[in-house]
Design goal:
Length: 292
């Protein structure tokens, strides 16, 4: 990593800052001497968690409400004059087999973890375009890279969607001096698996009974036992945001690196499944024989 830090104080807007990783990020940013607009559904809770500081503004923001996002951005600009870094952190977890998740639960998952970041980013972009600078960080997951396991279909859909949107957004906003970073954390000891953040599908299909119980026990048992330290991840984000050219993706945690490496290996294998067939599909290509 090159030492091309930008040392001037920056203004960060962080969603979901009233608890968990969002609060850790806010503390790390304040500790580094920057200003923070810390948002959450309950601004008083945000203030009680983070305390008082002239460099801190706690603002009510439900990311599913575009008007809340617009109001939070106005408050940030009125207080600090600009927004340099946006962290899309607020999220939820609807766990369960896809067939047992209700359409409403899937919609809530997508609304919070995909549409929510879009709402906040849409409100922030005019400020960053005017500045001709800014950095948008969106917290994804290892499940946004690879999700070949049970119980995360709705969550993975929201994170895969988040990543596709962020990758395209990166190209759209780069001409305005705005950079983007997708963060793929592995298992960090946040509050995502607490009762406040995780919602389980109601058991309704007998065919899943045998597998469902051990999976629910596994997910509940993981809460508070994850190996990743969210305070260290928060400091890593402060470091990344200080770079003149931050990475478009940051894979966070040894377990996340392992997941990414497995995904790369699987993709390479699938590319070679039948390269002749894959490359024979243009109008003027000779039909492939189907042999590898």
């Amino acid at each position: 990593m090159r030492n091309n830090d930008v040392v001037s104080k920056r203004v960060w807007l962080i969603t979901g800052a009233g608890r968990g990783m969002g609060a850790d990020i806010a503390r790390a940013v304040l500790g580094a001497g920057h200003a923070v607009v810390a948002t959450g559904r309950d601004a008083e809770r945000v203030s009680s968690v983070l305390g008082q500081s002239p460099q801190l503004l706690a603002v009510k923001l439900d990311v599913t409400e575009p008007h809340d996002a617009e109001a939070a951005v106005r408050a940030a600009v009125e207080r600090f004059g600009r927004i340099d870094v946006l962290v899309n952190n607020a999220a939820s977890f609807y766990a369960g087999y896809f067939e047992e998740l209700t359409p409403d639960q899937v919609n809530r998952q997508l609304t919070t973890s995909l549409i929510g970041p879009m709402n906040v980013t849409r409100a922030v972009l005019p400020v960053m375009r005017k500045q001709r600078s800014g950095h948008i960080i969106s917290i994804s997951s290892s499940a946004g890279l690879a999700a070949g396991f049970d119980f995360v279909s709705a969550y993975a859909a929201s994170k895969f969607g988040l990543e596709g949107w962020m990758e395209s957004l990166s190209a759209e906003v780069a001409p305005f001096g705005i950079t983007t970073t997708i963060v793929n954390p592995g298992f960090f000891r946040t509050e995502l698996l607490t009762q406040q953040s995780t919602n389980y599908a109601e058991p309704s299909i007998n065919d899943y009974d045998e597998r469902r119980r051990p999976l629910m026990e596994y997910w509940k048992a993981q809460n508070g036992r994850q190996s990743g330290d969210p305070a260290k991840l928060a400091m890593a984000l402060v470091t990344i945001a200080s770079l003149e050219s931050p990475p478009r993706r940051f894979i966070a945690g040894a377990d996340a690196i392992a997941t990414a490496e497995q995904k790369v290996a699987a993709l390479k294998e699938e590319i070679e499944f039948d390269r002749a067939l894959s490359t024979s599909l243009d109008f003027h290509s000779e039909p492939a024989t189907g042999t590898r």
